[in-house]
Amino acid sequence: MASAPVRALSSQSSRLSSRPVSDPEDRLAFFSCQQCMQSIRIHPSFYTMNEHTLAELTLPPVNPMPQFDFERARREADEAGHEIHGLAPPLRLAESHTHGFTFVDEQGDNVSLSRKMRETALLFDMLSESGEVDHPLCEECADNLLESMDQKLRVAEEEAQEYKAYLEKLESETEDDNHIQSLEKELETLENKEKTLREELKTLSEKTTKAEGDLEREMKAKKVIVEQEQKYWKEYSKFNREMLLNEDESKTVDCRLKYTESQLEKLKRLNIYNATFEIWYTDHFGTINGLRLGRSPSKPVDWNEINGAWGHTALLLWCLAKAIQMEPFQRYQLVPFGNFSYLKQLSDEKTLPLYGAGGFRMIFDSKFDHAMVAFLDCLQQFGDEVEKRGFHLPYEMERGKIKDNNTNNWYPIKLQFNSEDSWTKALRYMLTNLKWGLAFVCTKQGLPQDLSKNNSS
């Protein structure tokens, strides 16, 4: 709060006018407003103050403003290496003449400071030091300052009244011992509770630390388990793949086994002799495995086919004799050798070829005829053997001839001095006897028989 002298001087400051200087008597030095910087004219009352007013104004303020040591602040800034901008000390009007400050009238003539001017400047300096605002002020700025100070004063008085009312309320209240004791008990309870909570917090902190350690160990164990799990899944995938491959292989083996068993059953039901030696006829030719045995003037047969048919015939008789385990043939040894099969005469080891080449040479070559007669003799020995076992061949054979039961005619097996038709018919009857012998062997061995192609003589 401003002191009385300052407030009185502020009132005097409000008398300063900013109107221009026109009167000759007013041609005195003038100041500038420290707020709006307008030129102001000093009221004449400032020059007529008595000694008591000046003495009162020179008294120190009740709450003087602390003086700011600008030199100390500048030294500290220089020592710290900082640079201060905008730091300027307040202007003292009373000392302005030492800095070349002068008052200038309207004609621009320099006027030295008089004693009254020094006193006026000294009053303005005292007023500026005692408050927060620099002086002098014009009338308008002084009024604004007074309004602001009045508003602050009202706010301060209201606050003072509130504090005074609250203080009176506190002083009027009487202290209750029971209430104090209850508050002390409550304080003690809260302190105990705080202590308990602090102990619990300490326990929880220890448990948290332990739990974090356990968590870290569990995370490490989890990492190991995850790695083991990945390794397990890899091994599982590998074993699963191997298992699938083994299952596929097992199924393949089962399929092969079933196929083999089915083939075995087929083979068990198969007559190997009928499958190997198929005897049938084509036109008036007897055939074995599709090869015709015989010749005809109307349908000539190549000798390679005839020789092949004789080779199959020789092999069939050799297999039948071996199947019934009969004694070796007398007088001859049968040697199956494909298109070049032959018989060997046991008495002189003479070879009798069971194949021919055709042409005129065969008319004068009797070895082929002797071989066919020898083969028919071996077949007759086989017939005699199966006859002992209760089976008879359909066509009778004797000395190189075979008998037709329907006409009782005998047909020689030789080619010389014989017609091709007779020779072909004899060969056909011979194949029929072999087919019957084949049926006998299959019956004895329990093999299924296929008699759908029996020859009807």
TrEMBL record:
Region feature Disordered, mapped onto this chain: 1-22
GO biological process: autophagosome assembly; cellular response to nitrogen starvation; late endosome to vacuole transport; mitophagy
Protein name: Beclin-1-like protein
Annotated Gene3D superfamilies: Autophagy protein 6/Beclin 1 (1.10.418.40)
UniProt similarity note: Belongs to the beclin family.
UniProt GO molecular function: phosphatidylinositol 3-kinase binding; protein-macromolecule adaptor activity
Keywords tagged on the record: Coiled coil
Coiled coil: 139-210
Domain of life: Eukaryota
Bias (Low complexity): 9-19
Domain Atg6/beclin coiled-coil: 136-264
GO CC term (a single one): phosphatidylinositol 3-kinase complex, class III, type II
Occurrences of domain Atg6 BARA (ranges): 267-442
